[in-house]
Design goal:
Palmitoyltrfase_DHHC; transferase; two-stranded antiparallel ribbon; 46% helix; PFA4/ZDH16/20/ERF2-like
C-alpha cells in the first residue's frame, strides 16, 4: 500500500486549469478573476502557480520534492495515504527493533562499548543507530501527518495556512469535517484506505468550483 500510494502520488496529475477557463460568462461568477502572468491563464479560486513545475495547479497544497510532484486536488488523497503508511511502517520498524535495541543497550552497559574485538560491537551500534533514527522519523512524521489531517478537516491547504499564519483564520471552504474529507477521499469510506481513482473513490468536485460556508447557509 505504501509503494502504491507513493506511485500514485508521484504519477497522478494534481490538476491543471482547463483550456480557455475564465473567458466565458459564468466562470468564477461574482468573484474577482485572478490571472497568472507566467502561464497566461485565468486562475480559479484556490489555484496557484508552482515555480518548480512551471504551471498552475488546482487546489495546490505544496510542491513535494520527495515525489517530485505538486500536491493538488487530484492527488492529495494519495499523499495523505502515503504519510499514513510511512508512519505505520516506522511504528512497525520501531516495534521490531525495540527488543534488539534493549539488548544492545544492556550489552553496552556490561562491556562499556570497549570490546573492540567483539563482533557484536558493530552490530549493536547499528541497531542502536537504526532504532534512534526510526523513532526520530516516526516523531517527525506524526507531527507532519497531524498537521495535514488538521488542514484536511478544516478544508485548508498549506499555502492558505501560511498566508494567514499568525492571524485568526477560518476557511470559507470549511463546510464540515465529513464533507471536507469527501472532497479529498471521495464518497465511500470503505475506499479511503486504498489509493484508487474510480467511482466513489474519487474526490468530490472538480477542483475549480468550491462550495463555501455562505453557499451552505443559503441552502
Amino acid at each position: 500500500m505504501l509503494v502504491w500510494s507513493f506511485f500514485q502520488s508521484m504519477t497522478t496529475d494534481p490538476g491543471q486549469v482547463p483550456v480557455f477557463w475564465g473567458f466565458h460568462l459564468g466562470d468564477n461568477e461574482n468573484k474577482r478573476r485572478r490571472y497568472c502572468l507566467m502561464c497566461n491563464v485565468f486562475k480559479p479560486e484556490r489555484c496557484h502557480h508552482c515555480s518548480a513545475c512551471n504551471r498552475c495547479v488546482l487546489n495546490m497544497d505544496h510542491h513535494c520534492p520527495w515525489i517530485n510532484n505538486c500536491i493538488g486536488f487530484w492527488n492529495r488523497k494519495y499523499f495523505l495515504l502515503l504519510l499514513i503508511y510511512v508512519l505505520l511502517m516506522t511504528y512497525m520498524t520501531a516495534a521490531t527493533l525495540a527488543y534488539d535495541f534493549y539488548e544492545a543497550i544492556m550489552w553496552g552497559f556490561q562491556v562499556k562499548f570497549m570490546a573492540t574485538n567483539d563482533p557484536k560491537l558493530s552490530a549493536n551500534i547499528m541497531i542502536i543507530f537504526a532504532f534512534i533514527l526510526d523513532v526520530t522519523v516516526a516523531c517527525l512524521m506524526t507531527a507532519f501527518l497531524k498537521f495535514h489531517i488538521m488542514l484536511a478537516t478544516e478544508n485548508k491547504t498549506t499555502i492558505e495556512n501560511l498566508d494567514k499564519q499568525g492571524k485568526p483564520f477560518k476557511s470559507v471552504y470549511n463546510v464540515g469535517g465529513r464533507e471536507n474529507w469527501k472532497q479529498i477521499f471521495g464518497q465511500n469510506p470503505w475506499l479511503y484506505p486504498f489509493p484508487i481513482f474510480c467511482g466513489s473513490g474519487k474526490p468530490v468536485g472538480d477542483g475549480i468550483y468550491w462550495p463555501t460556508t455562505n453557499s451552505q447557509q443559503e441552502q
